[in-house]
User: What shape does this take?
Amino acid sequence: MPGLRARMAAHLVISDVIAGGHALDERFAPTAVPNRTLGLDPRDRALVRSIATVAVRRLAAIRRILTHLLDKGLPRNSGQFEWIAIGGLAQILFMDTPDHAAVDLAVRAAKADTKTAGFAGLLNAILRSAIRERETLLAELDPLTDETPGWLGQRWRRSWGDDTARAIAAAHLREPTLDITVRDDAAGWAEKLGGTLLPTGSIRVAAHTPVPELPGFDEGQWWVQDAAAALPARLLPTNPGERVLDLCAAPGGKTAQLAAAGASVTALDRSAERLKQLAANLGRLHLQADMVVADAATWSAEPFDAVLVDPPCSATGTIRRHPDVQWTKKPGDVDQLAALQARILARAATLVKPSGYLVYCVCSIEPEEGEAHIAALLRKNPDFRRVPIEAGECGITPELLTADGDLRTLPCHWPNEDSRMAGLDGFFAARLRRQG
Assistant: This one.
């Protein structure tokens, strides 16, 4: 049946992410085990990704609606029922799939699973109810209370207030566009790629063309990098030939920026596999860096002219691009990661030469992982001073800066009438200098 294998694969991916805790992107990597899209043609693989991504992005709402439609709750020992229902509701409520196709293929998928087959009639009934009640069900949804995990919603209310927390949650519901960093001639490449040159120098492309098929990819003229993620490396003052350390460097966008600027870059990461991918990316870009496999919290070396540190974090600033983050992270992760970040930042400070610069950044919107670390570092290290970021520097607008002169982007920043051009990842970055 056309489209059935794609739906069945999507249901398995949804289960892998929500029940198994796997990253969504990981499930579509060629090395994924098991590979859910093996043997599917490119069009069906794209469909699997679309269904799974929408299902994970709108999971809270879908589960709320599913609870409403199931008078007696989820049936027990029902095999793939929950994941098939979630995939079907994702298509009916949030995608352009014809209703009859979404229902028919979901029921066929249920009948194909021996544990779920007996519940095919129930599945058919709830999906048809969703079609009848769709307008009412969608009108009642609130992005913060109905479409965000409760622990994250509470955190964001405390940190940013109700209005901003709700705006953040709403931004997460929009599919992001593709942001690109180019080696040079950003205006020229914006025209070639049919994109928009952003004030910060990134190019935003709204087309859905596969990345490897875009002009300039094979020639290594650019790489994919969110506009917010591209800012920390631009804030690090470096001169050609200076020794620069990129701590926790993979996947390598910042390493590429520093190398393209002429720095002599050392890229350190604890994962040898991730560094292999970084090296492959640099090879495509015709750039070079020294690779070091080590623990950033304990590694020692001769001090560098500049250090950029982007430690492991909760990644709550990237939910627009990686909606699985809100389901794979847990409330206790923020404190555990903050403790690791403090150790890595303390080590990074010892690797900066007198008069050298340090930029600390995280793709998190939790203040414990950003602002709090800089305040603690400055209290403990009197030889470091903050170098405030100025409005207009690197195209940064005043609303992206804190009162102390640090960078703080939120997913709801950069509003735009065209939703495809709105938003950016949530990021924090602070620039410090060690006194001579």
About this structure: The first helix runs from residue 4 to 18. The CA atoms of residues 56 and 324 lie 6 Å apart. Residues 225-434 form a domain with the Rossmann fold fold (CATH 3.40.50.150).
